[in-house]
Amino acid sequence: MNFGVNFCFDGGRFIVAGASSGMGKSITEEIVRGGGSVLALARNKAHLSCLFDKCGDQIFTEAVDVRNAESLVDIIQQFVSLKGKIHGCVYTAGVSAVTPLKNFSDDTAHEIMEINYWGFINLMRIVNRKKYSEAGCSNVVIASVAGHTGEAGSFAYSASKAAIMNSVRTFAKEIYKRGNRINSISPGFVNTKLSSGFVEEKGFSEKTIEKHLLGIGECFDVSGLALFLLSDSAKWITGQDFVVDGGYLVSD
């Protein structure tokens, strides 16, 4: 039995970074289904093309590296000029890799921080300017339970997510004057291409899987909360982190 909630985003304009796969793709499709328009950002042109074919003229795709702030500004300026100011922004872009203290790649560790954290900072600095966003713009960023626990062998990934959560609390105190808000979501293990690749590299024990009391999550287990936080129903919520982890953190 399905008791899913449908959100109405008619006339709304949104940005989703990391839209070509996983949670970003799921959130993008749900916004479009609710009547909104989406500027979908990702690095993979082929995946973005598939998303465009599925979502039609309510979606605008741009291949971009979130670390390139100048390119982000140009793309967002073009979208705003064409469609109007932004009502909401979702940051799901991210990478993960094993970074054990005794043996890790500097390049890999820095890439994780640059994409997971600094790309998020780049987008927030742009979107929350008055000339690009409507008053009351809602920002949602995907963090992780790893930011709460500090997963062994994953210091860079865990640190990037913890940094996101702390920045969310800080930014909430800076963007509120126009009614803008920002929140993060910390999922447990969700079945995506990113997480699957990480499992192959690091290996997940049965014990780790069992700690998810309600089982491993799917993208739609997280996207519904993101849609709620984007909606006007959440207009009195800001600076918070919401854990959606199937019971992972309470299982110890």
Structural write-up:
The relative contact order is 0.15. It contains 9 helices and 7 strands. The protein is globular, with a radius of gyration of 17 Å. It has helices at 22-33, 45-55, 69-83, 106-127, 146-149, 155-175, 193-202, 206-210, 220-230; strands at 13-17, 37-42, 59-63, 86-91, 133-142, 181-187, 241-244. A 7-stranded parallel beta sheet has the order 3-2-1-4-5-6-7, sandwiched between helices. Helix 4 links the parallel strand 4 (86-91) and strand 5 (133-142). It is an alpha/beta fold and 252 residues long. Helix content is 44%, strand content 17%. Helix 1 crosses helix 9, helix 3 (69-83) packs parallel to helix 4 (106-127) and helix 4 (106-127) packs parallel to helix 6. It starts with 12 loop residues before the first strand and ends in an 8-residue tail after the last strand. The protein has a single domain (13-244), classed as NAD(P)-binding Rossmann-like Domain (Rossmann fold).
Write the topology of this structure.
Layout: E1 13-17, H1 22-33, E2 37-42, H2 45-55, E3 59-63, H3 69-83, E4 86-91, H4 106-127, E5 133-142, H5 146-149, H6 155-175, E6 181-187, H7 193-202, H8 206-210, H9 220-230, E7 241-244
Parallel strand pairs: 1-2, 1-4, 2-3, 4-5, 5-6, 6-7
Helix pairs in contact: 1-9, 3-4, 4-6
What can be said about this structure in brief?
This protein is an alpha/beta fold. It has nine helices and seven strands; from the N terminus they run E-H-E-H-E-H-E-H-E-H-H-E-H-H-H-E.
